[in-house]
Write a structure and sequence with these properties.
By secondary structure, the protein is of the alpha/beta class. Helix content is 22%, strand content 13%. The structure holds calcium ion (CA) (2 copies).
């Protein structure tokens, strides 16, 4: 049985039917980001230079993104603007275990801590530190991070916890392949004091019946690390996956240690791709079919080759998937962390206050109660 790890993105709406799974993204100079030292480790490597591993993200000299707030049905749906009157995530740390985060993006300026990467310059042992090494050459991780914590500055998009600090942990390479050690990444985030860890990674079974086979036979260590995080008072949020199968039920360990998050679209119907089942803790906006209006607007690296036709703005793109849903819950976790509520207590608060909590979940029909940020922070 072949198991491959993939990102639970919604480019993944089509991921199971079409290859490549994720749009390839080449790094290129971007005139919109006016900075002298925006080179990533990869580019530096090609030039034979070492990346600035101690460097802080240089401050862009211009930032002219339009205000996309009228596109953010997701924030209105979960009541996060109302919730932000009570908390904005200030002081809370959210570890994003993903493809890295665009460390130069103005939406996160000055709000990174403890970066770690499994994509390191030649000759540097993995994992490596340094903000430049945690830079995102793909897009997925930056999109996740934007939903958690993009700045509420009247430009571009806004995150659920717009003042939260991001701990970028890069386990995915520029193609979106998982190259890092998920258990080590999770343990690192816990040790470094993350309040919330969000992971939007799915699994695809190559062959064989999905439901009767264990999906995580090779990942006992990761499961253990998630349990350790929960024991240490960290809230862990996981994307339910886009396989349309009960992913969350495939390991008993997920039941208590993490919130498993399904997705729905702007019409409030469960997304067709979303994982489902009794073990989904709740669902959050992940976008419907891949339309501009129906997807989730968030950040992507500003130096991606292709500008998203929906946003027509470097640094912003529209994705859909359970990958996009889980960070909404992580953002609410950051709001609660600011209020002094963490770990399993925060998870309980989030599920207890979700809309439709307590209504039994019918497999294939529902993806659990819906995230309510405003209710969670009251
Ligand atoms: Ca913004
Ligand atoms: Ca759970």
């Amino acid at each position: 049985m072949h198991i491959s790890r993939v990102l639970a993105t919604g480019l993944g709406v089509f991921a199971l039917a079409a290859a490549p799974l994720l749009a390839p993204s080449a790094l290129a100079a971007d005139p919109w980001l006016v900075t002298e030292s925006s080179s990533s480790s990869e580019k530096s490597e090609k030039k034979g230079k070492k990346p600035d591993r101690n460097g802080k993200a240089p401050r862009p000299q211009s930032y002219d993104a339009p205000d996309f707030s009228d596109k953010m049905w997701n924030l209105e749906d979960i009541g996060s603007q109302l919730a932000n009157e009570t908390a904005t995530g200030k002081g809370a740390v959210v570890a994003v275990i993903d493809t890295g985060v665009d460390v130069h993006h103005p939406e996160f300026e000055g709000r990174f801590v403890s970066p770690l990467s499994w994509v390191c310059p030649k000759g540097v042992p993995v994992p490596c530190g340094g903000l430049e090494n945690a830079d995102d050459g793909h897009g997925h991780g930056t999109h996740v991070a934007g939903t958690v914590a993009a700045a509420d500055d009247g430009k571009g998009v806004t995150g659920v916890a717009p003042d939260a600090t991001i701990m970028p942990i890069r386990v995915g390479d520029d193609d979106g392949a998982i190259v890092g050690d998920l258990a080590a990444a999770t343990r690192y985030a816990t040790e470094q004091g993350a309040d919330v860890i969000t992971i939007s990674i799915g699994f695809i079974l190559g062959t064989g019946p999905v439901i009767s086979n264990p999906v995580f036979p090779l990942d006992d260590e990761w499961a253990q690390s998630v349990q350790e995080a929960a024991d240490a008072g960290v809230l862990v949020t996981l994307a339910a996956g886009n396989d349309g199968v009960p992913y969350c039920g495939q390991g008993e360990f997920w039941q208590d240690a993490a919130l498993c998050v399904g997705a729905y679209g702007p019409d409030s119907d469960p997304a067709v791709y979303s994982g489902w089942g009794y073990e989904i803790d709740l669902s959050a906006p992940g976008g419907g079919l891949l339309t501009c209006e129906g997807g989730i607007w968030s950040t992507v690296p500003m130096d991606l080759d292709e500008v998203d036709p929906c946003t027509n703005t470097p640094g912003y793109a529209v994705y859909a998937g359970t990958s996009m849903a889980a960070p909404h819950v992580a953002g609410v976790g950051a709001l609660l962390a600011e209020l002094g509520v963490g770990g399993l207590e925060a998870g309980q608060r989030i599920t207890d206050t979700a809309r439709g909590a307590g209504i039994p979940t019918a497999p294939g029909a529902l993806t659990g109660p819906r995230l309510d940020a405003a209710a969670a922070v009251q």
